[in-house]
Amino acid sequence: MTAGVVLLNFGEPETPDRAPVVEYLARIFFTNADLEGADTEAEQWERSRELAERRVPGLLAEYEAIGGSPLKPQSEAQAEALEVVLRDRGFDVETYVGMQFTDPTIEAAVSQAQADGVDHLVGLPVYPLCGPSTTVAALEALSDAVESAGLSAEVDELTGWHRHPTYTRIRADALADYAAAAGVDLHDDGTAVVFSAHGTPRYYLEQGSRYETYVEEYIRTQAAVLGLDDYHLGYQNHENRDIAWTQPDTESVVADLDAGILGRGTGSHGNNLQGAALAQHADARPGRGRRPAAPPLGDLVRSEEGAVGV
């Protein structure tokens, strides 16, 4: 049996050029068109392009500052590393990258898996926390692609891996190392730890998404591992649409603390940041830190005590 693992990701433009960035944003807004009341598909596309044009200046400036998104090469390297680890552990496996909104697409990944003779396909969203626009939408797109391609393979879906003990340990260790490098005592009264998660529209939560629950669950676990009795949570929300989002937003949390941010650790792609900010009050000692690295997927698959694998 040949297994294929599709690493499902959001996708981002590789170059800081206006046209592809606008098209990228328009596709995202169109996918979430149910958040507003447009009646026809044509109206939905018109509204999506309007929102994209409004959002593009800020996002384009961010991409220009870093020379375009590094997400594609990073994702491909991640898939290659995962394949090496799995093969070293005796699995007959191929890995693929499938993006929701840019190339290589999820459809292309399924097509390649079919050409490779894969008969057991595993959908692995790289998003640790299950959200409607990320994990759920990516797995639905994978299912649709498999059906459209007529791929006769067993399909499994992995989610909820923010609960995996190895992932918990990696992220907690990264935050502890970050604080140590910054010369910050996480347990000092002058230090505030602010966990920052990507927000989601309240509409999705009202429709049954448990994303907010997963965020709170994950952060409680991180705090417990780090021995934190006091911590804060904020959401990174968008203001593109006049709709309600998860609260409180990260900026308000930090402002209320009257503290300066020393740094932020992120563990996902540029549009879906999940991390923690270390803030110090005005009378606390300043420090400098480094950005903690994202956890390697190889550490999350079928270890002797682990439960995730193919």
What is the second-level CATH architecture of the largest domain?
3-Layer(aba) Sandwich
Task: Give the beta-strand count.
Answer: 8
Instruction: Estimate what percentage of residues fall within beta strands.
Output: 15-25%
Domain module tally: 3
Strand order of the largest sheet: 2-1-3-4
Computed CA radius of gyration, to the nearest angstrom: 20 Å
Shape: globular
Largest sheet: 4 strands, parallel
The overall average pLDDT, rounded, is 84
Could you tell me the CATH topology label of the largest domain.
Rossmann fold
Distance between the termini: 11 Å
Give the CATH level 1 class of the largest domain: Alpha Beta
Helix-residue proportion: 40-55%
Report the structural category.
alpha/beta
